[in-house]
Design brief:
Distance between the termini: 44 Å
Number of strands: 0
Order of helices and strands: HHHHHHHHHH
Shape: globular
Number of domains: 1
Oligomer: single chain
Strand content: under 5%
């Protein structure tokens, strides 16, 4: 159990790496928390620093989730020595989810940035890719399509996140592809949490004041 708890803690620490803050300060001398929406995440990095830096932060945040759910969970599985998984759950699936969720929590509440982080979409995307790559690839394709069509990163994140648990349901019950039930449950929970974290973006989208990729950043926090 101690080894498993250690891996979960490492996942949280990995998720806590504030990619947007470090990339902004290190490469541009800009703290993204002081511009745009004030959020330390991928969406605000696109908005404040532009596409190249937004992509850089997205990749880093994505890898935090992927490394946790795919690699660190594998280490935990090899060392698994305690009854952490609930009854009737597949242990490997549970560990992938637990490590990935720890990374997402770390991203949202990073110990290295005063527990004020991003909204978790990119890290959750990496986490879910490590668990089940087909469905998250569909969501990722939708993410890119919406950004190309609308230039709203927040809208792309919300729509792609909402699609993910729906795709899993279609795979399991429509296409008869095995998907562990625990993955579907946690996918729905993660999707709800990410969409809820975007509530301010949703309000701005409704009002027509949400910033687009390529626009001049709003210097005042909204």
């Amino acid at each position: 159990m101690a080894a498993t708890l250690s891996v979960l803690f490492i996942s949280y620490i990995l998720g806590s790496i504030p990619s947007a803050i470090w990339v902004g300060k290190g490469l541009k001398g800009v703290d993204v928390r002081e511009h745009g929406s004030g959020n330390a995440g991928t969406t605000n990095t696109f908005r404040v620093l532009g596409v190249p830096f937004g992509i850089t932060v997205f990749v880093l945040d994505f890898m935090k989730g992927f490394a946790s759910s795919f690699w660190l969970s594998s280490v935990a599985f090899l060392w698994f020595n305690g009854p952490l998984a609930p009854p009737n759950w597949d242990v490997e699936s549970f560990l992938s989810i637990a490590c990935g969720v720890s990374a997402v929590i770390g991203h949202m509440f990073p110990i290295f940035a005063g527990f004020k982080g991003g909204k978790g979409a990119a890290t959750a995307c990496g986490m879910l890719f490590g668990i089940e790559p087909v469905s998250i690839s569909i969501s990722f394709a939708l993410f890119g399509l919406i950004i190309w069509a609308t230039r709203y990163v927040s809208l792309a994140s919300i729509m792609a996140t909402a699609l993910y648990p729906i795709t899993l349901l279609v795979m399991r019950y429509g296409l008869d592809i095995f998907v562990d039930g625990s993955v579907i449950i946690f996918a729905a929970i993660i999707a709800f949490g990410i969409i809820y974290k975007h509530k301010s973006n949703i309000q701005r989208l409704i009002e027509g004041t949400e910033s687009k990729v390529g626009e001049k950043a709003r210097l005042a926090k909204q």
